[in-house]
Automatic annotation (TrEMBL), chain A:
Residues 30-177 form the PX domain. GO terms for biological process: pinocytosis; protein transport; retrograde transport, endosome to Golgi. The keyword NADP does not apply. GO terms for molecular function: dynactin binding; phosphatidylinositol binding. Involved in several stages of intracellular trafficking. PROSITE patterns: PX (PS50195). The gene is SNX5. This is Sorting nexin.
From TrEMBL, chain B:
GO terms for biological process: early endosome to Golgi transport; protein transport. The keyword Phosphoprotein applies. This is Sorting nexin 1a. It comes from the Eukaryota. Gene3D superfamilies: Arfaptin homology (AH) domain/BAR domain (1.20.1270.60), Phox-like domain (3.30.1520.10). It comes from Oreochromis niloticus. Residues 1-90, 143-170, 187-369 are annotated as: Disordered. Belongs to the sorting nexin family. Residues 14-23, 356-369 have a biased composition (Acidic residues). InterPro entries: AH/BAR_dom_sf (IPR027267), PX_dom (IPR001683), PX_dom_sf (IPR036871), Sorting_nexin_N (IPR005329), Vps5_C (IPR015404). It is found in: Cell projection, Lamellipodium; Early endosome membrane.
Length: 409, 708
């Protein structure tokens, strides 16, 4: 159990300090290796920046101390991810997807709206709405911390990546890494690179695949990616709809309450009961929404990103394959012209080597990815089903209790 | 105010006069039909209008009487006979006083039953009281007259001869009797209705009346009433004869004679009373109902219905005064009412608030007992294009005797429902009744249906409207007074209904209505009524705030429904997406899990949809109903205010006329003086009519109390 204290400055949440018990990471099942344990016990939210405390416990000799903590920001994580992606040696690996940027805009915006609409609500209603928003904010915060933690844990549990020098620096260096933010040019460069990559993907898609396994993987991943992306969007919408209903319950409950206050007849009690029921329903519905969000939407979202990473791996392999083909052609040309033959041979050999290496590790990575995915889905689905059943049972008892009460009146 | 037209029904002028005596009571209930008329008489009794009224009564009663006897023969003889026997026993057992009490007890029951019926009946009730007094007065005088009646009784006891007599009498009476019979037919159901209401019986246990009640005979109540009217000596005789009369023609003839003799001896007042009595007796016979439609009188079926109601009410009215007495008696354990004469006298005048309260209670009890269920089913689109409309099947299930069948079904279109509301609100709104409002016209929704798009929103719309119409009708028939309205019955029973034209929004009538509404709104703003009644002030505020809250709640529930629908939609699309994902998944177990997830989500989508529908139909629609009802409640407040204003006007006018009269008196101009006096009388009536309007307030209060 770790405690996280987010604080929110310069927002509607004025220095909101909350502590809560963080749930263990949900989306990935990692074979934990006791030699390197990483968690984020604490995080502080200031303005747009979130400061994470990264805590490491290790028995590895490459670290100076067995137990240490360092402060890190979201940008540091991105930097770590980028360096890993750019390292040639890791081309055959699925690099864990970088955590998404913390997004507190939506709860903040809602808070703003709530402040504007305060006049139209009763005090009680407003308080409840505010609580609801705070809870929402907290959930977002929790999720943010979680994805960052998962990113590091994925790295630490990876046999190759856990040995990475940059990773170790990230964990150990106790000063601010002060990674500078990407400047405009770099941002544009990144964007340009992406364009080139997509164009390249289209170009090399014409290259004939030599390995059935990769051929299958490719079609599967492409298909799967589009489907899971769709599912993620839909699940998100569904979760939001649950949330909206929970919010409606707040208002209905409050209105029923004020009706009850005006009512002087025997109906007063009934109205109060009803208002009470809606209030309780609100809580259940809110739990349904947040659990669904955590167990379903987050899972889908994470694997969407993971599959993107796997697709990147396939791209790199396909690139290597294309290079190899090209080098073959170059070799043929060179032989025809009887010119630069040894260089071409050397280049062709290197390309082949690289391609083979990529294929080998890629195969391993993809197979393990598949197993990992199945396990994670299974675990999350079971948990989600259990929670849904719990909530449904709660609703039934609530309703039954209410019916009893109303009848006994 | 359609008062003038309402007054017109010829048979009941008597009732108005009589009403005067019981004014207060009348106000409470008379709202249905002739409220205005009743209202005016009600105030008058104090002033001395009574005498004129009574004279009026006397004028008409003879004819009634004649009719009644005829009718009685018509009624099934067999049925009446058994009833009559028990009643006879009753008489024997009870002293005169006790008889009165018994009548009173019966009357109470009647009142309950009748309470459900329209205010018109109440007015009649008042009349009955008046007549009772008159009869009592004259009964002493007419002791000799009663003798023939006693003879009749003797005949009755010997049933065989009676039968013979009846055979003779029937041919003669049949023609005349038919219309009357129709009128009376209504009464019997009322009598039946009375029987089931046992609550009152308990109160009266001490008295012998309870025994009478226990006996299921319909005729008894009628007999008792007659007895009471005639005073103690007459009671025995009459009670039996009435039963006998209804059964046997010969006795009827005798009765007629006796009646006539009485008339001559006792004077016009007496006549009127016996007539009423007879009519009641006739009403008691169940056979009559079939002939209701016959318009031999030339009166429209609706009018007939009114007449019936009136007659039924007469019975009630008779009962009611006694009830009052009984109530008093109950209040004071001293018990048996004093001798019939004083009792009668006391009956008319006392009319204490306690009665009103009791009546209210009775009304509420009755509501629960109403055994009528109306369902609206099978919406069906008829026609094409913009002339298309939706027709609904209106099925009624009832055990109420006022309907000819236990179940019947008619087809009605939406505008018919609106037309019914128009009629009801015109008639009853000004009396302070809360007339349940129908669902609003919806141009947009209907246009969609008309265009014939078979999408979910139009079926949704039709279903919503169907539900709303059903609840609306059920509310109408649950209203004790509205149920008695001939228009309601016609709406439920008649195959073909004249097209309701005025309900079209764009028609000329609709335009007129809009103008009326606008003027109403203006006058509402200009009328400054200093509310003297704190109760109303509070209630008005309560209603206003409740209205606001309900509106808010309705909007919220609507948005909840919208969100639920959204959720259902999103769940559906997620289910589809999960199914796709499952098909894309290459791990068999996970693929199966995903497709199962898709299935579950699919089912959840259904559930969400159902929940949204339930929210709409049971929650949102209910709230919408209440919003409309609150509107109706406010409408009755407005009516009350209007009545108050007219009353004020009448008061100031009367003041003016009086002044001119005084001036003329001073100036000694006899010719003009006469004119002025007439005018004063006129305005006096007017004043009391609107003064009675204050009764509207009381009605409103009752209705409100019931509503809350």
């Amino acid at each position: 159990m770790s405690i996280i204290k987010p604080s929110f400055k310069n927002t509607g949440f004025n220095k909101l300090c909350l502590s809560y018990c963080q749930l263990r990471s949900v989306s990935v099942d990692l074979n934990h290796d006791a030699s390197l344990l990483i968690d984020i016990p604490d995080a502080l939210c200031e303005r747009d920046k979130v400061k994470f405390t990264v805590h490491t416990k290790t028995t590895l000799s490459s670290f100076q101390k067995p137990d240490f903590s360092v402060p890190r920001q979201h940008e540091d994580f991105i930097w770590l991810h980028d360096t890993l992606v750019e390292t040639e040696d890791y081309a055959g690996l699925i690099i864990p997807p970088a955590p998404p940027k913390p997004d507190f805009d939506s709860p903040r915006e809602k808070m703003h709206k709530l402040g504007e609409g305060e006049a139209t609500m009763t005090k009680e209603e407003y308080t409840k709405m505010k609580q609801e928003l705070e809870a929402e904010y907290l959930a977002v915060f929790k999720k943010t911390v979680q994805v960052h933690e998962i990113f590091l844990q994925r790295l630490s549990s990876h046999p190759v990546l856990s040995k990475d020098r940059n990773f170790q620096i990230f964990l150990e260096y106790d000063q601010d890494l002060s990674v500078r933010r990407k400047n405009a040019k770099e941002m544009f460069g990144g964007f340009f690179k992406n364009m080139v990559k997509s164009a390249d993907e289209v170009l090399i898609s014409g290259v004939k695949e030599v390995d059935d396994f990769f051929e299958q993987e490719k079609t599967f991943l492409l298909d799967y990616y589009s489907k899971i992306k769709d599912s993620t969007a839909k699940a998100e919408k569904m979760t939001r709809a649950h949330k909206n209903i929970a919010d409606d319950y707040i208002h209905i409950s409050a209105t029923l309450n004020s009706l009850a206050a005006d009512d002087m007849t025997a109906n007063k009690k009934n109205l109060e009961k009803l208002s009470d029921l809606f209030e309780k329903f609100r809580k259940v519905e809110g739990r349904v929404a947040s659990d669904q969000d955590l167990k379903l939407t987050e899972l889908l979202r994470y694997y969407m990103r993971d599959i993107q990473a796997a697709k990147d791996l396939l791209y790199r392999r396909a690139r290597a394959l294309a290079d190899y083909e090209n080098s073959n052609k170059a070799l043929d040309k060179a032989r025809l012209k009887s010119k630069d033959i040894p260089q071409a041979e050397e280049h062709q050999r290197q390309c082949l080597q690289k391609f083979d290496k990529l294929s080998e590790s890629g195969k391993k990575e993809l197979t393990s990815f598949k197993g990992r995915r199945v396990v994670a889905f299974r675990k999350n689905f079971i948990e989600m089903a259990e929670l849904e059943i719990k909530h449904a049972k709660n609703s039934v008892t609530l309703l039954q209790g209410c019916i009893e009460l109303l009848k006994s009146n | 105010m359609a008062t003038s037209s309402e007054r017109s029904p010829p048979p009941f002028p008597d009732s108005e006069d009589q009403d005067v005596l019981d004014t207060e009571e009348v106000r409470g209930r008379d709202s249905d039909e002739d409220e205005d008329l009743f209202g005016s008489p009600s105030t008058s009794p104090v002033t001395g209008m009574d005498t004129t009224l009574t004279s009026d009564v006397s004028m008409k009663p003879p004819s009634d009487i004649m009719n009644d006897p005829l009718i009685e023969p018509m009624s099934s003889q067999t049925e009446n006979k058994p009833a009559s026997e028990p009643s006879d026993d009753f008489f024997d057992l009870t002293n005169n006083v006790s008889v009165v009490a018994a009548a009173a007890t019966k009357s109470d029951d009647f009142v309950d039953i009748l309470g459900s019926e329209t205010g018109a009946q109440r007015g009649e009730v008042v009349k009955a009281d008046v007549t009772v007094e008159a009869t009592i007065d004259k009964s002493e005088v007419t002791a000799g007259i009663t003798d023939p009646l006693s003879q009749q009784e003797a005949k009755q006891t010997s049933t065989a001869p009676v039968i013979d007599l009846s055979g003779d009498s029937q041919p003669v009476t049949s023609k005349i009797a038919n219309p009357l019979v129709d009128l009376f037919s209504d009464a019997p159901p009322a009598a039946e209705a009375k029987k089931p209401s046992s609550a009152n019986v308990d109160l009266f246990d001490d008295e012998e009346g309870s025994d009478i009640f226990a006996e299921p005979l319909q005729t008894k109540p009628a007999k008792q009433l007659q007895k009471s009217l005639f005073g103690e000596p007459d009671e025995d005789v009459f009670g039996e004869p009435l039963g006998a009369i209804s059964k046997k023609p010969v006795p009827k003839e005798q009765k007629e004679k006796s009646v006539t003799t009485k008339v001559t001896a006792g004077g016009p007042l007496q006549d009127s009373k016996p007539a009423n009595i007879f009519s009641q007796a006739a009403a008691s016979t169940p056979s009559v109902t079939s002939t209701v439609n016959s318009k031999s009188n030339g009166v429209h079926s609706e009018e007939e219905g009114d007449i019936f109601a009136a007659e039924a009410t007469v019975e009630l009215s008779l009962d009611s005064p006694r009830n009052e007495r009984k109530k008093e008696a109950i209040a004071k354990p001293s018990a048996p009412t004093p001798t019939s004469l004083p009792a009668a006298a006391s009956l008319t005048k006392p009319q204490p608030p306690a009665l009103e309260e009791l009546e209210e209670e009775e009304e509420e009890e009755e509501e629960d007992k109403f055994d009528i269920f109306v369902s609206v089913k099978d919406p069906e689109k008829i026609g094409d294009g913009m002339n298309a409309y939706m027709a609904y099947k209106v099925s009624t299930q009832t055990t109420l005797p006022m309907f000819r069948n236990k179940t019947f079904t008619v087809r009605r279109r939406f505008s018919d429902f609106l037309g019914l509301y128009e009629k009801l609100s015109e008639k009853h709104g000004p009396n302070g009744f809360i007339v349940p409002p129908p669902p609003e016209k919806s141009l947009l929704g209907m246009t969609k249906v008309k265009v014939g798009k078979e999408d979910s929103s139009s079926t949704d719309f039709v279903e919503r409207r169907r539900g709303a119409l059903e609840r609306y009708l059920q509310r109408v028939v649950n209203h004790p007074s509205l149920l008695q309205d001939p228009d309601v019955r016609e709406f439920l029973e008649r195959e073909e209904l004249p097209r309701a034209v005025s309900t079209q929004a764009l028609s000329g009538a609709g335009f007129l209505k809009m103008i009326n509404k606008a003027t109403d709104a203006v006058s509402k703003m200009t009328i400054k009524m200093n509310e003297s009644d704190v109760w109303f002030e509070e209630k008005l505020q309560e209603v206003e705030s409740a209205d606001q809250q309900f509106r808010k709640l309705h909007a919220l529930v609507e948005s909840l429904v919208v969100h639920r629908k959204e959720l259902s939609l999103n769940t559906a699309s997620f289910a589809k997406s999960a199914a796709m994902l499952g098909s894309a998944e290459d791990n068999t177990a996970l693929s199966r899990a995903l497709s199962q997830l898709a299935e579950v989500e699919d089912k959840m989508e259904q559930l969400h949809q159902e929940q949204a529908a339930n929210d709409t139909f049971t929650f949102a629609e209910m709230i919408a109903d209440y919003i409309r009802l609150l509107g109706a409640v406010r409408g009755s407040f407005d009516h009350r205010m209007k009545a108050w204003q007219r009353w004020q006007d009448a008061q100031s006018m009367l003041q003016k006329k009086r002044e001119t009269e005084a001036k003329l008196l001073w100036a000694n101009k006899p010719d003009k003086l006469q004119l002025a006096k007439e005018e004063i009388a006129e305005w006096w009536v007017e004043l009391h009519r609107w003064g009675a309007g204050r009764g509207v307030g009381r009605d409103g209060r009752i209705a409100l109390a019931a509503w809350c």
